[in-house]
Amino acid sequence: MRILLMAAGSHGDVAPYTGLGARLQGEGHHVALAAPEVFRELVAGSGPEFRPLPADPRGASTGPAGRRDELLARASAFIEQLGDGLADAAAPGADLLLLTTTTAPLGWHLAEAMGVPSLGVYLQPTLPTREFPPVVGVGRSLGSWGNRAAGALGQRIVDRLHAGAVRRLRSRLGLPARTQAARRRAVERANWPVLHGFSPTLVPRPADWREGLRVVGNWWPHVAADYRLPAEVEDFLRGGSPPVFIGFGSMAAGQGERLGALAVDALRRAGVRGVLQAGWAGIAGAGDDVLSVGEVPHAHLFPRMAAVVHHAGAGTAAAALRAGVPSVPVPVMADQPFWADRLVRAGAATTPVRFADLTAGRLAEAIRQAVGDRSLRTGARAAARIMAGEDGSGRVAQAVAEAVAGGGG
User: What does pTM read for this prediction?
Assistant: First the structure.
């Protein structure tokens, strides 16, 4: 079967789908993964066919949140680019569409025009619920009624952001005019299936979610079976006590020099060794007890750490928990405060340090707590044992078979 998986956004929004795509190829399907051009090499190395999308995530999702109108303007520009790109990626055809949080609002229209089933494969719990507020932009609970109302409002905002792109996409596809809100209502009435790629240890399935919404466990970025850490990294890890990882993924572009100096100072104050990952910020540092690295799989690196300092993106937060290592969350924007809070609730993280408030002193204090508080490692290891028994990509493979057999979507 020809499966088209569409993922757009930052590295953390795309990398997990390389592992999912590889798993589905292993099940005998032909998989194409549509993603921004910057991820061509990442996708090609995992096995699926790569189909480029024009939207550049480095302009849409890497900086601090800024004012609300600035964030919405960035999102709107990203969506405008995305519509035609998704249509181009779908032009060669497919028997099934797998749609992510960022691609589903436009992907629903593609599935309609192509007459093929589709499934949601989300990394965030975006559907309204009484149990917690929207994962982006609210923070504290608003109570059961307020949480659900805020979630519904968030969906209306997303629909408005997509309105223009949807009109143009439906016209291009030869579909009759239809609002995004109407298309969403049709999807919800049909109990469109969405599989959520996070662990119930972090977010149990809300009791008030409709039929078809499932929490299945993580799918992880593809790593070759014969991968080994670079010799320089292995030598550093063996050369002393377990270090502390510091990295901010796709966040803080252009702030590498400042963050590198801050990280080295914090590590020195805390009296620990450190591994700094460059990320899109370009973080680096020098010293006998500090190693700077580029792209190194978290699955191989995190289990060797004493603690992990990170921006609390969905994938990085899950990877730290999977490794059984305490976290120091430093959320920057979007859903990151949500995941930081979930790590704290799991007993596996220090109190988050907001990126806007980050100083060497605050970071050093949090690192000392993460390394010295045994309860945090106990909490992380308990969650890791549960996650080891989960198979998110396998659950998706099963759902793919069910979707094809049922013919709906």
Answer: 0.93
